[in-house]
Structures are given as C-alpha cells and as structure tokens.
Amino acid sequence: MGIQDVIKTDVLRFVPAKSLCRFKSVSKDWNQWISSPFLAHQQAIHFTKTSGFFSQSNSQDCFFIPLDPHSHGVPFPSLSFLPESTSIRTTSNGLLCCQSTFQDSIYFICNPATMEWRQLPEPSLLHGHVSAIALAFTLSTFNFESQFQIVCAVPFHSVKAVYFEIYSSRTNTWKISDSQYFYAGDGDLMFKGDGFCIGETVYWETSNGVILGFDLKYEVYGEIQLPLPPGHGAITEIRGEMCYAMVITCNSENDEAGAYSLGIYGGHDMVLKHRFPLDVGSYLGEDFDGEVRVLSCVSDGMAMILVGSNVILYDVEKRKGEIVKKLVDLPDRASAGRFLPYVNSLVRVCPVERMPREDHDLQEVLRNTSELVGFGEVSLCGNKWIGPTI
Fold it and tell me: How far apart are CA 95 and CA 341, in angstroms?
C-alpha cells in the first residue's frame, strides 16, 4: 500500500470539508472516494472541531467567520442556495437549522458545506418570535443517515406556560409533548436566544432568572437558578458538563483578576467554579470603558466575547484570545446578532424517502446507498428533573 492509499483511507477522515473538496483534484480515485457517502460519514464522526461561526444581525444576510480561512469555509456563506430568505437559528455537528423570514412555520435543515438541504413539515403550534428552538444531533457509527430531533419551546403568556413541540427526522413529524412548564411572576417569560443541546438534554436561558432544561428521551423538564448578579452570559459545555459563562466586572483595584474576567459557573446551585482574567487592555487600550459580554460558547472550551466593537475568540484552557471580527463591518452595530458555532463537516442531510426505520438498520442503509453510488452490495461483519451539571 502506497503513501497515497494510506492518506486516503486513514487521514482524509480527519480533514475539514473545504480541504477535502480541493483534494478531489488529486486523482480520479480520490475524487470517487471523497464523493462517496462512506467517507462523508467517517469524516463527520472524526472531524468534530469547531471551524467557525455563522452570524446574522437583524434582517440581514448571514455570513461565516472561519477560524482558518485556508482550510475552513463554505461555498455560499449567505446560504443563498436555500429556496428563500431565512434566519439562522441553531447548529449541531455540521447541520444548520434555519427559519423562513416570511413564515414562522417553515424550517430548513441544511449542511452549508455540501449545500444539501431539506424543508421540514409545518408544526402544529405557532412558532413565533418569542419561541426558542434547539437542534439535537448526535454523531455515531450507526447514525448513518443523520437522524436528528428539533425541540421548540413555545410560551403561552395567557396561561403562563411553556409548551414543547418536538420534531423527529425518523418519522418526519412534529408532536406536542405532554410536559408543560408553568412559571410564576407578573411578567411574561422570554427566552434569551435559542437552546444549547448536551446529549439528549436541551437548555434555554430565560428572563425569569433560570436555565430551563428539557430531556428529549423522557420528555421532562427541570430548572436551574442562574448565577447572581445577572449578566450577559451563555450556556456552554466543558468536559461534558453543563455550565454558564459570564463576564464579571470588578470595580476593586486590588482584584488580581483585573477589571474583567470570565466566570464559569456550574453545579446545581450554579456557583462560581473558575475565573479567568481577560486582558481587555491588550485589545483596546488600558482606558477602555465599553461593553464586554459573552456572545456564544462552544463545547471545546472556546468563547466568543464582545469587547467594544471587537469579537474576541477566547480559549479557556490556554487563557488566550484573538480578534476574529470587528462589528464595524456589520450593518447593525447596535446588535451583535447571533454567533452559532459550526463544524466544517460532510455530514449528509437525508431525504425523507430514504430514512431508515431505526438507527440500527445500517445494513439496509448501506445497501440503498451502495446502489446509488454504484459500489454494489455491501455487507457487515460479525416529575421535575435537573440535567447533568458540574
């Protein structure tokens, strides 16, 4: 076996989608392998590192911020390949969920790297601007056809309740859960952005000072009190645990962390677990007195932090940051908009007519897929609940 064969079989699965598309020109054999659904599935499982962020301000086209422009990228960052104008809502492992800007009941699932997409059936409930969704998509060896779920939390202010409507790609249908979350207080409950999924549990930050959790498997909810004092933060995952990242402002000159620090809260009581100093002066000067807040977090210990008009990508483990975007480039500087982490993956968007009945029907999936690509037959050898916290 030559070096090219070793690279083709053992290395390409770890390469981002943009680079793989360039490597198709190496040879006819490489082109056939990179274009096959088998390599796409392997690459989706093995390449899981965040490649960049999709961002969108109010009523504007979305754009992509690659962490490495040479190897990470998508053909159409504005998602112009979709049949109509959309708003980006949530991402998971290479899949992006978008909502029509003309009709709230129309959703699209797509992979921006491959431009594959499909429209979902309309839900039963009205998913207006006050609702919040989350995409649950777990990569596994037997999830060959990219089965996923979407859960939408829909508040009904008249009865002070939140209903949960769940879409399953396996059945291509929506269903309304029997669980409802009832909240107290005089004001209406609002969601601060869409949900963050860890495993089979979805978390939303709410305006009533709690993180609302929903277990997709058992369809039960739970709530965790947010840290005080409240601030602009983001739910994230660090080492498999759910936690909350927030910028802490210190007015004391004797504080060793400096004027600004990144606080990581965790546990059932959401106590401060870690605190990392943010050297804001290195970006904007020592006399900076503007806004500093967390925009988004990703599961591999990275945080997007707004420092004045600069978007900083901060590595929690290395305690280092770099400027990746200036908001002066955006049409709406008053709002930083959404920053959704994206993995430059070849993960497939399965058409409805080819969905397997169960995830473990891999033999049937391989047989149908091999017929499509001309590989011939393929065979195989041999009531309140609180989610996981630190």
Answer: 10
Q: What's the total number of domains in the chain?
A: 1
Q: Per mean pLDDT, which range of 4-13, 156-165, 354-363 is the poorest? A: 354-363
Return the structure tokens found at 275: 């605190």
280: domain CATH number is 2.120.10.30
Cis status, amide bond into 229, omega within 30 of 0 = yes
pLDDT higher than 50, residue 359: no
Number of H helices, E strands in the chain: 6, 23
Beta pairing class for 132-136 and 149-156: antiparallel
- 320 class by beta-carbon count within 10 Å (0-12 exposed, 13-18 middle, 19+ buried): exposed
Listed residue (136, 130, 82) closest to 107, CA to CA: 82
Q: Is residue 380 part of a domain?
A: no
Q: Is residue 347 part of a domain?
A: yes
Look at residue 382 and tell me if it is in a domain. no
CA distances for 381 relative to 317, 327, 356, 362, 363, angstroms: 41, 54, 20, 12, 10
Q: Give pTM, 2 decimals.
A: 0.80
Instruction: Give the Cα separation of 84 and 90 in Å (integer).
Output: 18
Q: Residue range 141-157: average pLDDT?
A: 85
Whole-angstrom Cα distance, residue 54 to residue 66? 9
Q: Which of 84-93, 243-252, 293-302, 345-354 has the highest mean pLDDT?
A: 84-93
Lowest mean pLDDT among 37-51, 115-129, 283-297: 283-297
What is the pLDDT averaged over residues 285-313? 73
Amino acid residing at 219: E
Instruction: Provide the 3-class DSSP secondary structure of residue 221.
Output: strand
Q: What digits encode the pLDDT tens for the residues 30-84?
A: 889 888 888 888 888 998 888 888 988 776 788 898 888 888 889 999 999 999 9
Angle, to 10 degrees, between the axis of helix 37-46 and the axis of helix 362-373?
A: 130
28 domain-assigned: no
Q: Which residues constitute the domain of residue 211?
A: 36-373
One-letter identity of residue 201: T
Which residue's entry shows tokens 């840290």? 227
- Residue 182's DSSP bridge partners are 161
Closest C-alpha to 12, from 58, 37, 46:
46
157: Cα within 13 Å, side-chain hemisphere? 9
